[in-house]
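Weekly structure sync, notes
Attendees: PL (lead), two postdocs, one rotation student
Agenda item 3: pending single-chain targets
PL asked that the sequence for the first pending target be pasted directly into the notes so everyone works from the same version. It is reproduced below exactly as submitted, 174 residues in total.
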Amino acid sequence: LSSLEITSLPYKQAYYVGDELDLNGFELTAKYDNGDSRTVCDYTVDYDFSVAGEAIPVKVSFGGKTVEFTAEVKNVLLESIEITSAPLKTVYTVGETFDVSGMVVTAYFDNGTTGDVTSQAVVNGSEVVPSSQITSAHTAGILILSANFWRTIVFPFLFFTLYHTDNSACCPKT
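Predicted structure, written out during the meeting:
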């Protein structure tokens, strides 16, 4: 064996951190001292897609020889978060602390995957206030939620009824 030649790169050249290499379309040719050549399939591949980069090396070895090509590896980015299950408690007295029990927050990523990020979600301003008491620190009838991904969703209290301490409804259920 005198050399290896990559005669066809894989169809897929862009990956996300943590992806497995897809060698569909890849072709490796072994060239011999006598001028012969043949396509080989029993090669080994070494790569590390655990970090992002524009030119991550992929090393292909056969018969004691190695060639390489590069692939782009991108970080997985959050596209959005969504409350996919509402909290169990939906009726509050003004001033009561918001209870997140039962709430499920789902993250949607640019690589098409999703994940439950409920345990990482942070409720900003957990005191329930009526619309007549809006200040810069409160948002009436709205829960501000972020999930440690620098994304925020505003969840209207569409399923909530807020009551004054005298039990008169201040924000009817919608």
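Discussion points:
- Confidence is low (pLDDT under 50) at residues 126-174.
- The two ends are 75 Å apart (CA to CA).
Action: rotation student to compare against the earlier draft before next sync.
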